[in-house]
Specification:
This protein is mostly helical. Helices cover about 70% and strands about 0% of the residues. The structure holds zinc ion.
């Protein structure tokens, strides 16, 4: 739980700094630009310069961090080990938060994920299934990515207007590659399938909600990253318990 708290703070800090500064540096207040102290994260204290409070995301990440580390303590993941599971949880939370807030997956973040995926994948399944899984995850998402682009292009032509929305970001392709390394071959097939299933259910529900509220827009793409991450967590729990 303490490690979960520290991990969640690390996620909050990196999610504040990386998308803006593109490097590890002192965090700045998003209102006054003054430097933030560690108390802003650990104790959820206000900015000492302007009194700006930590955002809802800071609190949600902390609560989820406590929840998931508590869950891990109750139901340990034997195939991965709890410290490793926590490390992956931090990584995936960071990717998800940045994806949701900025619709962005940063290349250094993807790259460190690939290194992590290679190390863990090889330990879990051996080199070949790991590399194959990574290639399959990356390749399958890449196909979806191009199909999505094609779809948008055809549609914008038939409507005679530009559609700026992208169906799937390239960051999702990178993430699928990292997850492919971790799950290996053929696990990645189940991973992608489950992510599409969850994504379909959630966007279906989202659509119904919008139709009910009469705010329907044909193109409100949901980021796929969170669904990929959720499907990995589910698969690890399933495979640990059979
Ligand atoms: Zn401030």
């Amino acid at each position: 739980m303490i490690l979960g708290w520290i991990g969640a703070n690390l996620v909050n800090y990196l999610a504040d700094v990386l998308p803006i500064e593109r490097k590890i540096t002192t965090p700045k207040c998003n209102r006054c630009g003054g430097h933030l102290s560690w108390k802003f994260y650990i104790l959820l204290a206000s900015c000492s310069h302007c009194g700006n409070k930590p955002s809802l995301r800071h609190k949600v990440v902390l609560i989820l961090g406590l929840f998931f580390s508590g869950l891990l303590a109750q139901f340990p993941l034997e195939n991965l080990g709890n410290y490793s599971a926590l490390l992956w949880l931090i990584y995936f939370s960071l990717v998800t938060v940045i994806d949701l807030e900025h619709r962005l997956i940063l290349h250094p973040v993807s790259l460190s994920g690939a290194v992590l995926g290679l190390i863990y994948g090889s330990a879990l399944h051996g080199y070949l299934p790991t590399l194959l899984g990574g290639a399959a995850g990356f390749g399958m998402m890449l196909i979806f990515y191009f199909l999505g682009q094609l779809f948008v292009r055809v549609l914008s032509k038939s409507r005679g207007e530009e559609i700026e929305e992208i169906a799937l970001g390239f960051g999702d392709v990178n993430l699928a590659g990292v997850i492919g390394l971790l799950l290996g071959w053929p696990g990645i097939i189940a991973g992608i399938f489950l992510a599409i299933l969850i994504g379909g259910v959630v966007s279906g529900g989202f659509l119904v909600l919008q139709v009910l509220r009469k705010k329907y827009h044909a193109f409100q793409a949901l980021p796929y990253g969170p669904f990929l991450v959720l499907s990995v967590i589910i698969l690890f729990y399933i495979s640990a318990n059979i």
